[in-house]
Amino acid sequence: MLSKLVCKQVLNHGLRLTSRAASAPAQQVVINRKPEVKYQKLFINNEFVDSLSGASFDVINPATGGVIAQVADGSAKDVDRAVKAANNAFRLGSEWRRMDPADRGALLYKLADLIERDRAYIAALETYNNGKPFKDAYNIDIPHCIAVLRYYAGWPDKINGRVLPVGGDFFSYTRREPVGVVGQIIPWNFPMILLCWKIGPAVVTGCTTVVKLDEHTPLTGLYTAKLIQEAGFPPGVVNIIAGDGPNCGGSIVKHPDVHKIAFTGSTHVGKIIGAEAAKLVKRTTLELGGKSPNIVFADCDRMY
User: Fold this and answer.
1) How many CB atoms lie within 10 A of CB 295?
2) Does residue 295 fall inside a structural domain?
3) SS3 at position 227
4) Which residues does the entry assign to the active site, renumbered to this chain (predicted)?
5) N or C: which end of the chain has fewer CB within 10 A?
6) CB 71 within 8 A of CB 37
7) What is the total count of domains within the chain?
8) Alpha-carbon distance 301 to 303, whole Å?
9) Residue 83 domain boundaries
10) DSSP class of residue 118?
């Protein structure tokens, strides 16, 4: 994956572009307050499939407490199915492993274009499921996702090694290679942004990935899975499932064929993941802890 410096660069790049987009008022867009939920199944090997157990869970509208949809509940067996698809896509000689780096970037550009095309719908769905104001989803979150993917899209053919000057009749060089299958777990607060932060670096570096969406906010992630399919990603490169943390997320962390874990969430769970990953000497990227609480008082104008 990419360095902390690069991650800081992409964050700043995305914030600059989204600040420009925020100047356009959301009132110019017709807001769909009850967007259609189009995808509710697990996305494995470029197909939408039911969970093997047939189980599902309710997705709740945080504004009303009502049920928006029922989404397939990923279990350990579903995780294993997704990991096998990711490993198959990563095998030597596969379409993904033989793809030119610039072509990997082209896929990210295409995905960014599709998100931009469907910006209003995705923002409405994010608001419907997550509860954030539409103007924030439309003017900040979705433009940031587009900017992030386009930023990463320019990187695949610029990641290289070095020739090292050594003594004697030797030719010494370094070569950067993809880690393999990356298991990625995201929380509920910025579903689309965090999904793009996770997918971008994995695709850039030639890895394959299994992403677990938060069970409270899976809807925009599952819609993005359809856009990944539409963009032309080879089967198994990006797999997106939804489920709870201890069972579905824990199965990703403990799976022996997952080579790296990227997790955004609580410090408590991050410690558990770090300990489990250490047992198999897995690489980890842990973004932990919330530090920006908001207190809403009774006299707040909630319609503002």
Assistant:
1) 5
2) no
3) helix
4) 287
5) C
6) no
7) 1
8) 5
9) 4-25+39-162+176-288
10) T
Which of these is catalytic: 47, 116, 177, 287? 287
Whether residue 170 lies inside any domain: the answer is no
Buried b (16+ CB within 10 A) or exposed e, 168-195: eeeeeeeeeebbbbbbbbbbbbbbbbbb
CA distance 304 to 301: 6
21 with 140: CB under 8 angstroms? yes
Q: Are 237 and 89 in contact (CB under 8 A)?
A: yes
pLDDT at 26 > cutoff 80: no
Q: pLDDT above 70 covers what percent of the chain?
A: 90
Tell me which amino acid residue 132 is: K
Residue 215 DSSP code? T
pLDDT in tens, 227-239: 999 999 999 999 9
Task: Let me know if 287 is a catalytic residue.
Answer: yes
Q: Which amino acid is at 9?
A: Q
* Tokens read off for 233: 């990603």
The string of pLDDT tens digits covering residues 50-84 is: 999 999 999 999 999 999 999 999 999 999 999 99
Residue 140 C-beta-side C-alpha neighbours within 13 Å: 12
d(CA 23, CA 216): 30
> What is the CATH classification number for the domain harbouring 77?
3.40.605.10
**Inter-residue contact 94 to 194 (CB < 8 Å):** no
CB 42 within 8 Å of CB 72: yes
pTM to 2 decimals? 0.88
For the four alpha carbons of 140, 141, 143 and 149, in that order, the dihedral sign comes to positive
- Residue with structure tokens 């780096």? 101
220 contacts 122 by C-beta, under 8 angstroms: yes
What residue type is assigned to position 179 of the chain? V
Residue 8, pLDDT score? 58
- Strand, coil or helix: 198: helix
